[in-house]
Amino acid sequence: MHPSLTETPALSRRGLLKFSLGASAFLATAGLGASLTGCSSSVSANGFVVLRDGDLLFLRALIPVMLDGAVATGEMPAAVDGTLKSLDYSLDHVSPEMLKLTRQLFDVLGMAVTRGPLTGIWGSWENASPEAMRHFLERWENSSLSLLRMGHSSLQQMVMMAWYTRAESWAHCGYPGPPKV
Fold first, then answer.
1. How many CB atoms lie within 10 A of CB 154?
2. What is the pLDDT of residues 24-50, one digit of tens each?
3. pLDDT over 90, % of the chain
4. For residues 40 and 34, is the Cβ–Cβ distance under 8 A?
5. Which of 111, 132, 163, 170 is the most exposed place for a label (fewest CB within 10 A)?
6. What are the sequence ranges of the domains in the chain?
């Protein structure tokens, strides 16, 4: 007699080992690919202390979508540049471990082999439409995987904190600014 599905384990030890081996091979390949293609480079972009060129490609596609409605269309380029400078400054002042985790997130988003399956954006970030970016953010926000939900939360917190530290953001939310001393 064959055991029913309820009597058999969902994942056997052998299956778990196979899965773990496959996942390890995938991550090792992705990490090697990142180092060979320069995705995990620690060289900062020109004019930045922490942010790298690949990070800027992603963030320049992300920030306008996150600031939509808070910034007038004509002011968006300046708002994006200011937010990038604030984010760079903030990342320069976080712990080394937090910076490492942030760079890992940006590396995963920067590599085509992981970007497509995880975000649904198969081309480069500079070609991603605002609708595709919104879909990516909604996908991560509502994911059944807690790691993707945490990634969404991290991205949202980083960008929003960088934006709302800037004086030009205060009028939109009704903040008069710090008291004058």
1. 15
2. 556 556 555 555 555 556 799 999 999
3. 66
4. yes
5. 170
6. 52-169
Q: Where are the alpha helices (DSSP H) in the chain?
A: 13-37, 53-66, 76-91, 96-110, 112-119, 130-141, 146-164, 167-173
Tokens of 168: 């030009």
Contacts of 67 (CB under 8 A, 6+ apart): 76, 79, 80, 83, 159, 163
**For 172, phi and psi rounded to 5 degrees?**
-60, -35
What is the C-alpha separation between 113 and 111, in angstroms, rounded?
A: 5
Classify residue 10 as exposed, middle or buried by CB count within 10 Å of its CB (0-12, 13-18, 19+): exposed
Choice among 9-18, 70-79, 81-90, 140-149 with the minimum mean pLDDT: 9-18
Does the pTM exceed 0.90?
no
Q: Is the pLDDT of residue 52 over 70?
A: yes
Type of residue at 109: L
Structure tokens at 156: 């949202």
Tokens of 86: 């604030």
Q: What does the alpha-carbon distance between residue 74 and residue 175 come to, in Å, rounded to a whole number?
A: 22
Q: Do 87 and 159 meet the contact criterion of CB atoms below 8 Å apart?
A: yes
